[in-house]
Structures are given as structure tokens and as C-alpha cells.
Specification:
The structure holds two protein chains of two kinds. In chain A, about 55% of the residues lie in helices and about 10% in strands. Chain A is mainly alpha-helical. In chain A, strand 2 and strand 3 form a beta hairpin. In chain A, helix 1 crosses helix 3, helix 2 crosses helix 3 and helix 3 packs parallel to helix 6. The mean pLDDT of chain A is about 85. By secondary structure, chain B is an alpha/beta fold. Chain B has 14 helices and 17 strands. In chain B, a hairpin with a 2-residue loop joins strand 1 and strand 2. The longest helix of chain B has 20 residues. In chain B, about 50% of the residues are buried. Classes of the chains: A mainly alpha, B alpha/beta. At the A-B interface, helix 2 and helix 3 of A face helix 12 and helix 14 of B.
Amino acid sequence: MSVLTERAQNLIEEFELFDDWMDRYQHVIDLGKELAPIDESFRSSDYRIHGCQSQVWLQPGQEGANVQFRADSDAQITKGLIAILLRVVNDAPAHEVAGADLAFLDQLELKEHLSPTRKNGLDAMIKQIRLYAGAMAARSSQSS
Amino acid sequence: MNSIAAMPNTANTPDLDAVRAAFPALQTEVHGHQVAYFDNAATAQKPQVVLDRIDQYYRQENANVHRGVHTMSQLATDAYEGARERMASFLGASDSREIIFTRGTTEAINLVASSFGRSFGPGDEIIVSAMEHHSNIVPWQLLCERTGARLQVVPVTEDGELDIEEFPILLNARTRLVALVHVSNSLGTINPVRRIITDAHGLGVPVLLDGAQATPHAPVNVQELDVDFYCLSSHKMFGPTGVGVLYGKAEHLEAMPPWQGGGDMIEEVSFTGTTFNEIPHKFEAGTPNIAGVIGMAAAADYLETLGWSWIKQQEQDLLGYATTQLSGIEGLRIIGTAPKKAAVLSFLVGATHPYDVGSVLDRLGIAVRTGHHCTQPLMKQYGIPGTVRASFAFYNTRPEIDRLAEGLRRAAQMLA
């Protein structure tokens, strides 16, 4: 089992603990609050993810061969969703993240309860994470 | 407005339960709750009579209009042109030739921009306001790009009213058109359009009103207003989507060039030149939205049968009650506090994002709009990303508003 799949599985189990939808939302909101802040210089249109009704900024980063993203949003539920994504991809090898389908979000049963605009935003975020990871993986393989 | 007195139970007063029962979509269950539908300014629900009329058209009368000698085509044409008469009387127009069917308010404005605006040139000015919907900004910007004309913007005050003192200052000999929203979709403000029209006409400047949010709430009489162009959308006044009206004074419409070419809008076509049909047909190229037009007329019938006085009383009661109930919520800030408002309540809860509040409310079966409501310049002026908007219709109830207040308290707690 890849590290990504394992982490996704843990998240799915974690979310299964909540029967009530409001509690599930509360958990998403709380996860967002734990997100590490981004550097202010990344709070710009260059790093903004388009397609979200709320504003989302993604700060790419790398530690060795592993990705290390940070992100922020002005909406708390969005921020929580980012936190969930980053919990899965951060500290994972860039080449794995670049190829990941990140479909685990469907299993959290979160995606189907999001508005279409939010879903588009989330898809845009996933796409951007994979693009960055792809570029990082390419750089790592060139330098090694 | 804040009167809590029960409505008099006279024979002329519609029964709210019976009214609600006539709207099938109000019975929809959302996440285990009966929906509390507060997104009426985006689109209103449709009464059974409108659905039945559309169904009947397709089942029994469906044929193309203005074409055939056969009976069904004649039936369809009668229904379609009857709907034009109906919409003329709905708007108080003296002549049904002044009613052009469009896809909605947006297309009506684009029609005027494209056709009436064709003669505009460099240095000409069009006056809009800072509270316009994008559909009453962007068509004019496109026209300005094509012609070199300029937009002038009437500012909006802190409480969400037009800065009416600024209007005469902007009005001048270069002004070719004033295009204003009658009732603001994001704030609910009812604009003093009569005064604006009088001022503009004083300088010989025609006025277009975006009536999308006005026609669901109150009767409009274009002759009394003496307005030059008036636009409405069927779907916001309990009719089907994809259809609306451009009212235009005949003198303008007759002088205006066609804007789309095709069947029905021509008199005679040849490769050396084509002559155009009379108004209104000159502006209706191609097979129109026949079912939509007929359904819209049924919605106009429905509203007038219900009665404007009851509709207004019910909506003002809901607005007053909601304003009181929501004002009691800690940190809730109402955006748009003009004294004359339609039943629209835009607000923010503390520092929470409208999107988060809307998502929590949705889980509780409460439908509100969140975001900039297609009025980005206005949101920028207030320095906010958007608002949560609850927009009421006559079929909403006080217990639904209690659910909204309770839901907002819960959202505020979760997002704290």
C-alpha cells in the first residue's frame, strides 16, 4: 500500500466516526484551523487557485524528494478541505503525488455534499498540487 | 412593516397554506428537511398553474407560430400573441407591439445595447449605477469598446441607496442613455426611478430600467413611469426559465435596427437586399420560446389573481420579521439598509465567510445565496467578498425564518 493510500485510508476511517453531518463539517472546520500559515508573499494572484468562490492560495515547497505544501483560504470549510488534501500529500514523494488520483475524497463522502462551485475549486486545487509535484519530481530526477 | 398582527381572514385574502401547496418544489426535501427556500431573487419557484399551462401547450397546441395555415399553428400563434397582449397589460403598456420576447433581462439589455446603442459614438456617455448587476454593466462596456462611448457611474451610499444628488451632475448633453436597476438584487433597495426618469427626460435622455427584481414584488406600469425601455425575466416572477420581456416605446423600437437575423424577423429576403418585418417581430429572429412565453403569461395571471396588495403585505411582513430576528444574532451585520427595500436581506455573520455559512445552512435544508450576487463592483465598495442573501417570496413563512435564525446561530457557533 502506498503512503498516499494508507493516509487516505486513515482519513476515511477518521471520518467514519462521525454519523452526523454537522459533526463531519465541524471536523473539517477544525482541521482547517490546524493548518500551518502560508508566507505572506504567497498570498498573491500568482499563487491563487482559480475556480474557487472563496479565495485559495497554494504555496509550493519541497523537502528533499518530498512535497511540502502550505495553503490558506478565506473560507473555513474550504480551508478544512485543503488541510485534508495536504495531510495526504505532504511529506510524500513528489513523483507519487504527481501521479496520484486522490480519489479518496470521494470515499470521505465529502465531495458529493459540496456545491458544484466548491467541487470545481477542489478539482482545481488537486490539479495544481499535481502540476507542482510533477515539476518537482522532474527537477529532482534531473539533479540526481 | 414590523407589525406582528395576523392578516385579516377575509374572503379576498389567499390562504398561505393553500398558496404553498400550489408550489410543488416547496415540498422538496433537502438533507432530511423540507426546504426553506430563500433564494427567490436568484429564481423563484413555479406554481402548478404555470406547469400545467406549459404541459398543455406541448400536449395539445405544439406547432410553430406565424407560419402555418393549419389549425394547430393558428392555436399556437393565438396563444403566443395572446401572451404578448397579456404581458403588455401586465406592464401597463398601451400597445402589445412594444413587447419583445427575449431570453430574459440579460438578453433584453444586450438587445438595446446592440441595436439602440449602434448610433453611439466617441465621447457619448451611458449612465449606470454602482449597484448594477453585471448584466447591466458588461453589455454597456462592450458597447463602449465598440463605439468609444464612456460609462458614468452613479455612486451608492453606505446604507445602499443611490447617491441621488450625484445623478443630475453626471447627466449632461453627452448622455445618450441612463440604464439603472429598478430594485437591487443584492441589497433590495428600491430606487427612486420616477425622479430619475423625470430628470433624464428633462435633458431628452432615454432611460432603461432593469426590472428583473421589481416585477416579482410589485406592479409596474411603464406608461406611468414613462420609461423608455423596461426589462424583466420570467423565471424570477414564478414563470419558466429562458424567457423574458423587453418593453420599448414604439418610437424607439421602430427606429432601431434589427440585432439578430433569421426567420420571422424579415419581410422579404433576396441576395440584393432584405427588408425587415414590423415591430415586434423585427426583434424576434427564429422560432421563439413559445412554451416559455405562454408559461410566463400564466405566471402573470397567477400573480394578479393572488393580488399585489396581499403579495406586498406578506413580503413586507417577512422582511420586517426577518430583519428583527436576524438583528438579534450576535455579530450579524445587514448590508443594505435603505428605507425602501424589497424582501431581500443581505448580511454577514461576524468574520465568517458567506460560503461557509451557506454550506452549513444547506445541511439544515435552508437555501440561501452566497457570494457577490453578480455585483462585484458593489461588493468591492463595501470591502467584502460577498454576502449571505436571503430573498423572500410571498410563500415563505415566519417559522421558516425562525429556522434561518436558528441555523445562523448554529453556523456562527461552528465557525467561531
